[in-house]
Amino acid sequence: MDKKTSDQAGLHRRGFLKGVAIASGSGLAVSAQAQTPPAAPAQTKAPLPTAAQTAAEHEAPAHVEALTTEKTGSDFMVDVCKTLNIDYMASCPGSTFRALQESFINYGQNKKPEWLTCLHEEVSVGMAHGYAKVAGKPMAVMMHGTVGVQHAAMAIYNAYCDRVPIIMFTASAGPVEDRRPGVEWFHSVQDGAATVRDFVKWDDYPWSLQSFAESTVRGYGLATAQPQSPILITADGKLQEMELDKHEESKLKIPKLTIGTQTVGDPAALKEAAKMLVAAENPVILVDRYARSQAGVDALVKLAELLQAPVVDSRSRMNMPTQHYLYQSPRGAALIAQADCILSLEPVDLFGQLNRVRDQIERTWRHTTKATTKIINITTHDLLVKANYQDFQRYSSADLQITADAEATMPYLIEAVQREIGERKSMFDPRGQKMRDAWKGFAARSHAEGALGWDSSPISSARMYAELWNQVKTEDWAFLTPNNYSGNWQHRLWPIEKHYQYIGGSGGSGVGYEPVAALGGALAHRDVGGRLPIAIIGDGNFNMAPHVMWTAAHHKIPFLAIIQNNRAYHQEVMHIQRMANRHNRGVENAVIGTTITDPNIDYAALAKGYGAVGIGPISDPKELGAAIKKGVEAVKAGNPVLIDVIMQPR
Amino acid sequence: MKFFTAALVAGLSLGAGTAFAQQDTAPKGNIENGKKLFTANGCYQCHGTLGNGAPLTGPRLSNTQLPFDAFMMQLRSPANEMPPYEAKIVPDSAVADIYAYMQSLPASPNAKDLPLLTGMGVK
Is residue B10 part of a domain? Predict the structure, then answer.
């Protein structure tokens, strides 16, 4: 055996002996076969020599190649993942991780994590995004080397902007001398994370199994530390496919996963904040990506009640029960304008909350607060900022900036406020009464607006939400999608009380989030049991990943998808219209490149084609109630269901 | 470019509808043509197909109480976010037609008569 052969055999030395034993019985391949250059490039599909022919061409074999093995690097990688209590691995298949996939489904018995089949990497990642927000913990995703990560990029960006943890893996086909010609080169990469490095918190390409274990555990810890984010590990092809003998295995150690505590605001700053809030005449609590648990919601209610301060919710999470009299979002603009002290909790865009930019040729902007308004900002923003992508939004100064996780800080802020109030417990009662009075008016105003176009066809968004409520009011419903493109009716009239009933939006406004996040959220709800997950999905959004219905049908993930079908990328219709007006050219052509008509898409047929239940199109509001009733029954029977509703543009 | 009208129009038109009586000076518009123009000019994209309004994109226009002048002024120099429509694109006569169409629409039902609506959110 020459030096090269011996090096190549390296890891397979134990396999050699076993190989001899097998070969002697079966006359199977010898090591020389591995060195024999193929007669022609693989692509030409020349017939391969039979084992017997190959053997006959060579004299006594110096080395008998092992063709099978009992344990591989990829099995160890599964061992590592199993220590992390991950329930699912979503994936669209790809050969760069073939060993890992096989190890997960066989060696790992396809449990914890269970392998889920997605039909696009954007679905794998997007579903993990929705899942984490409902389950309160991350799931994993496996992406093909190079092309799979490229497919997934937008969904990763959404999750990053939304500060949601995902444990992501990709793969690469090992060192050059091991790669098959052609495809394996296209799917190999020196730096697999480079494509998405700007929007993952951390990534690594471990070069040993020990390093894989440490990086994966480290990655999990980083992903789940606030502010949370996706992380990416590249699983090298050679490491995956190498044989792992008992001796090598015994040297490997999987570190224990310890989830760190989250950052909490320092006591002096919280005392100062409490003073400012208690002294304020018109304090307002602005809340955005704040609560990640029911405890966070309950704590916010407690703080708001202590201060009798209105809460204005920008809805990146479910933060404040909509039926609480201190939920004052409907008059947020007026409250912000009058405020003398604003407490902002995990804002996504503080500048946008405190200023207004006018979208005309001249982009004018103005503060919406008084010049004297004091701002307290509790945020993890400064703990994860990168340079390139501008998700950090325009800079907005605070008078007291507390770098900390707002949810973890809340109990301490409450304590500080209680101390500051002392015996004066009822001092804010008159303010509370004003809030109760204002709150009572919200429903009446919403009803007056909801009545407009009540019988119209296309169906109004208020009518759709009212019909929906009527069918699900006795269920344990939960929304999987945001509602800012359909009138915010859930937040105006539905009693959103539980944290899981609303999970906010995409984070990065990458279109296609709604169906994929809905799929993942529905999965997490299914595992809890007894819930009715509902997604209101725009037709443009749905078209980015209609095959989520297949994954849902295949894996038995029930949810109700209502397609808010306005037959357009309607936001873009309005943008083009705005430009056409600005340029004085009339708006007739604004439909070019923005509408989805001629032919109209039959979404119910599409759903049926993917094995889900499809209902509609429904354009007569009088038929909608019955259609939703049928859909709800089908969801309760375990099906993913799509109802195509022809709706007003907004 | 218009630097000066926004504040004035805001005062006139936004949310001030009921404060104005309808003016006799409103030109007589052609309802049928107004219906076509409402669609052709994309008003419905933000204001709903029946001018019913949508919470985040544009207020109600059906049965508008705005005087014709304020209605016109909003098109020419919008109060805030609405894209401007100059006379070259929507001539005064077309505005009159759209106005007439909006006036002609049947009033929306009273919310009190819609138990499905008032029951929304009530357990």
Answer: no
Provide, as residue numbers in chain A, all residues whose Cβ is less than 8 Å from the Cβ of B40: 587-588
Can you tell me the distance from the alpha carbon of A243 to that of A234, in angstroms, rounded to the nearest whole number?
Answer: 19
Asked if the structure places residue B79 within a domain, the reply is yes
Query: Is any Cβ of chain B less than 8 angstroms from the Cβ of A576?
Result: no
pLDDT digits (tens, 9 = 90+) for B35-70: 999 999 999 999 998 998 887 899 999 999 899 999
Helix, strand or coil, per DSSP, at residue A44: helix
CATH of domain A451-646: 3.40.50.970
- Please check whether residue B98 lies inside any domain of the structure: yes
Rounded Cα distance between A457 and A208, Å, is 62
The domain tally of chain B equals 1
- C-alpha distances in angstroms, A318 versus A134, A137, A328? 11, 16, 14
Q: List the domain boundaries for chain A.
A: 73-250, 277-384+393-441, 451-646
The model carries a pTM of 0.89
Topology at the third CATH level for domain A73-250 = Rossmann fold (3.40.50)
Cβ contacts (< 8 Å) between A444 and chain B: which residues? 111
Q: Do B89 and A581 touch (CB under 8 A)?
A: yes
Which residues 429-458 of A have a C-beta within 8 angstroms of B?
443-444, 447-456, 458
Q: What is the CATH number of the domain that holds B53?
A: 1.10.760.10
Q: What are the tokens at A136? A: 């309160």
Q: State which residues form the domain around B98.
A: 24-118
Cβ atoms of residues A624 and A463 within 8 Å? yes
Alpha carbon of A23 to those of A15, A64, A141, A593: distances in Å? 11, 7, 39, 64
Predicted complex ipTM: 0.85
Q: Which CATH number fits domain A277-384+393-441: 3.10.330.10, 3.40.50.1220, 3.40.1110.10, 3.40.50.10490?
A: 3.40.50.1220
Residue-wise pLDDT tens digits, A413-453: 999 999 999 999 899 999 999 999 999 999 999 999 999 99
Q: Show which of residues 462-521 on chain A sit within 8 Å of chain B, judged by CB atoms.
A: 462-463, 465-467, 469-470, 473, 484-485, 487-489, 492-495
Residues of B whose CB is below 8 A from A359: 81
Q: Nearest-CA neighbor of A557 among A481, A635, A476, A472?
A: A635
Which of B55, B111, B121 minimises the CB distance to A469? Answer: B121
Q: Do B52 and A649 touch (CB under 8 A)?
A: no
